[in-house]
Amino acid sequence: MYGSLVGLGAAIVLPTYFYSLSKKEQFNSGNKEPTQLNKKLIKDFVIAAHSKLALVKEMVNEYPNLIYAAYDWGNGDYEEAIEGAAHMGNKEIVNFFIDNGARANLFALTMLGKMNLVKPILENYPKLLYAKGPHGLTLLHHAQVGGARDLEGFLMAQGLTKRMIKIK
Fold this sequence. Notes:
Radius of gyration: 25 Å
Oligomer: single chain
């Protein structure tokens, strides 16, 4: 009698135990948090992205996910590498980032003169006209450094006159 109860117990408990163990392994072993990128590496990358395409390419080749990283200059003044290139008017580096899957944003698109993309966004979300990019640089600054005269005129006609708005 006990043998059959032990056998029955084992038949119920052991598969449940092994199933739960394999589920734990599924959720724990393969989903460990990835290592964070080194802050100095991110800072160096963001700085390089302002003007050094060869170095940027080398760094992206070694650390592809750097294109998604942002550096905090303090007080919430975050800057992604694409934004550093954009506020310097560096179209070649911005296009390299976009071609490699970086997150293009309103500031980069403004610098590139993409009126067909920027204008409808601002028409639907008019308060974005006063959005602050890295270091408080505005869309007007980005249009000017990119030589996007049509966008510059559009932004000014909408009431944007400042190149920089202080980050609080």
